[in-house]
Amino acid sequence: MLKNLRHVTIVATTTFGSRILGLARDVLLFFFLGTSIWNSAFIVAFTIPNLFRRLLGEGALTSAVVPLLSEQLEQEHTAAAGYRFINRVLTRLTLILLAITATGVLLAWGVRYIRGLSANWYLVAELSLVMLPYMIFICLSAILGASLNVLGRFGIPALSPIWLNLCIIGSLLWGGVGLGVDPAQLTLLVSWGVLVGGFFQWVIPGIALRREGWKPHWDSSQDPSMHALWKLLLPGLAGAAVLQVNILISRLIAYSIHESAVSVLYLAGRLMELPLGVFTIAVVTVLFPELSRKAAARDEQGMAQSFQSGNRQILAITIPAAIGLIILGKPILDLLFNYGAFSARDVSATLPVLAIYGVGLPFYSLATIGVRGMHAFKDMVTPVRIACLALFTNVVFSLVLMFPFQERGLAAANVLSAMLQCFLILRAFQRANPHYAFRDSINPLKKIGIAATLMAALCYGWIVVTPLMGLEGKWLSVVQVGLGVPGGVFVYFAILQWFGLEDLDVLKAAVIRKLRGGGSSEAI
Questions:
Q1: What is the pLDDT of residues 85-124, one digit of tens each?
Q2: Of 153, 204, 210, 262, which is most buried, counting CB atoms within 10 Å of its CB?
Q3: Handedness of CA 120, 123, 129, 131 (dihedral sign)
Q4: Comparing C-alpha atoms, which of 158, 157, 146, 485 is closest to residue 336?
Q5: Is 339 helix (H, G, I), strand (E, B) or coil?
Q6: How many CA atoms lie within 13 A of 136 on its CB side?
C-alpha cells in the first residue's frame, strides 16, 4: 500500500510539473510567434511526427506491449525473457520508424523542388526535415517507459514530457531573448529544440532500463509473442489512426486558409482539452474496468447502470466546463496569452473558435465513454467504422464551411462530426445492451441544466460588474478568472448537492483520483 502511494505521488508530482511546463511552453510560443505563419508552420510540421508518436509510440502499441511483457515476466519468472521480448519489439519498431522517417524526409525534400506552391508549404517542408527524426526517439522512448513501468519504475517515464518542454522553452528563451533572432530563425531553432528534447526522452529511460539489467541488441527472431502483439495492436491502431488523420487533415486544411488559422485552432483546442483530458478521462479510466468486468460476467443490467452513471458524471463535468470556456474565454485568453506577439486581435480571433469547441465538449466526452463501452464488449470494429464516418463527415463539412467561415467553419465541422460520432456510438451501445437508454439521463440532465444556467448567470454577471470596479488590463483578467472560476464552480456544485444529483460523490472521487494519478504526456 505504501509502495503504491509512493508511486502515485511520484507520477502526480511529475505530471503536475509537466502540465505547468506545457502551459509555459505554449505561453512563450505565442509570446514570441503569436498566430503568425511561423507558429502555424511549426504546429503543422510537428503534427506529422506527433501523429506517429500517438500511433506507434503511445496508445495502441504500448497497450499491446504492457500485458504481453507482464505475461512474459510472470510465466518465465526471470527478467531475461522480458528483456528478449523488449528487444524483439524495439527491433521491429526501429525498422518501421526508419522506413517511415526516410519516406517522410524524401517527400519533404521533394516538396522544396516543386514549383508553384505557396511559400507556406516550403516552410513546412523545411521544418519537417528537422523534426521528422523526432518520431524515432519518442516512439522508442514510449516502449522503454512502458517497460520501466512494468518493472515498477514510474519516475523516469513520468518525466519524459518534461524533457521536451524544457528543450522547447530553452530554445525559445535562447533564441528570442539571448540571441534576439527573427521569427524565421527562432522557429527553426525551436524545431531543433524538439529534436534535442526527443533525444533526451529516448536516452534517459534507456539508461534507466539498462541499470535494471536490460542489454539492448538487435533481435529479429520470430516468437509466438510477436504474433500476439500484432493481434492486439492492429484493432487499436486502426482506431487511433482515424483520430490522428482527422487532426492532421484539419490542420492541413486550416493551413491553406490563412497564416493564423492553424495557430488559432491549436490554441482553442488546447484550452478545450483541459477539462477533456483531465476530468473526462478521469471518469473513463475509473469506469472502463468496471464495464469490462460486468461485460465478462454477462451482467448487462449492471453494465447499463454503470454506463448510465458514467454519462451522468460526464455531463455534470463537461456542461459547466463548456459554459465556462464560452463566458470566461476572453479573460482566460487575456490573462494567459495576451503578451508579446499575441495581440488583442488574436484574442478576438480565438474567442469564437473557443466557444464553438466549448459547445462540442460534451459530445467529445460522451463519444469517448461510448467507445470504451464498446471496447468492454470486445467490439473493436464498430468504433472504428463510426470514427471513419466521422472523419469523412469532418472533411466534407470542413470543405463546405471553410470558405464562408474560415477557421470558425473548421471548428464547427469538428463539432458536427463529434455530434454524429456521439449519437452513433451511443446508439451502437444501446443495440449491444438493450438495458441502456439515454432517456434515463433526462432527469439528471435537467438538474445539471438548472445548476449550469445559474452558474452561467453568475459568471456573466461577474464579467459585466467587474469593469465597473475601476479595474482594467491584466488586473481585470486576474479578478475575473481568479474569482469567477472558483465562484462559479462552488455555486454549481452547491446547487447539484442541493438537488441530490446521483453519483455526485462518485464524481468527486474520480476527479480526485485522476488528479493524483496523473495523465498523458503533453503533445502539440
A1: 899 999 999 999 999 999 999 999 999 888 888 888 999 9
A2: 262
A3: negative
A4: 485
A5: coil
A6: 21
Write out the residue range of the structural domain in which residue 406 sits: 251-515
Q: Kindly report, residue by residue over 137-179, the tens digit of the pLDDT.
A: 999 998 898 888 778 777 788 788 899 999 999 999 999 999 9
The residue type at 252: L
Per the structure, the count of domains in the chain is 2
171 alpha-carbon distance from chain centroid: 23
pLDDT exceeds 50 at position 485: yes
Instruction: Compute φ and ψ for 518, nearest 5 degrees.
Output: 90, -170
What's the Cα-to-Cα distance from 109 to each of 100, 121, 428, rounded to whole Å?
14, 12, 45
Identify which of 498, 503, 446, 447 has the alpha carbon closest to the alpha carbon of residue 311.
Answer: 503
Contacts of 401 (CB under 8 A, 6+ apart): 408, 409, 410, 412, 413
479: exposed, middle or buried (Cβ count in 10 Å: 0-12, 13-18, 19+) = middle
In angstroms, rounded to a whole number, what is the distance separating the alpha carbons of residues 81 and 220? 15
Task: Write down the residue that cell numbers 492532421 correspond to.
Answer: 248
Whether residues 209 and 310 share a domain: the answer is no
407 burial (CB, 10 Å; 0-12 / 13-18 / 19+) is buried
Cell of 286: 475509473
- Three-state secondary structure string covering 448-492: HHHHHHHHHHHHHHHHHHHHHHCCCHHHHHHHHHHHHHHHHHHHH
In terms of Cβ atoms closer than 10 Å to its own Cβ (0-12, 13-18, 19+), residue 260 is: buried
Rounded Cα–Cα distance for residues 356 and 413 (Å) = 10
Please list, residue by residue across 279-293, b when 16 or more beta carbons sit within 10 angstroms of its beta carbon and e when fewer do. bbbbbbebbbebbbe
- Asked if residue 394 and residue 282 are part of one domain, the reply reads yes
* 481 and 353 together in one domain: yes
CA atoms within 13 A on the CB side of 457: 6
Q: How far apart are CA 265 and CA 248, in angstroms?
A: 12
Closest CA to 357 of 469, 425, 274: 274
Determine the pLDDT at residue 505. 67
Burial class (CB in 10 A: 0-12, 13-18, 19+), 183: middle
Same domain for 342 and 478, yes or no, is: yes
If one counts every other C-beta atom within 10 angstroms of the C-beta of residue 253, the result is: 21
Provide the 10 A C-beta neighbour count for residue 269: 18
C-alpha grid cell, residue 231: 493481434
Please say whether the beta carbons of 312 and 473 come within 8 A: no
Name the DSSP class of 466.
G
CA pseudo-torsion sign 8, 14, 19, 22: negative
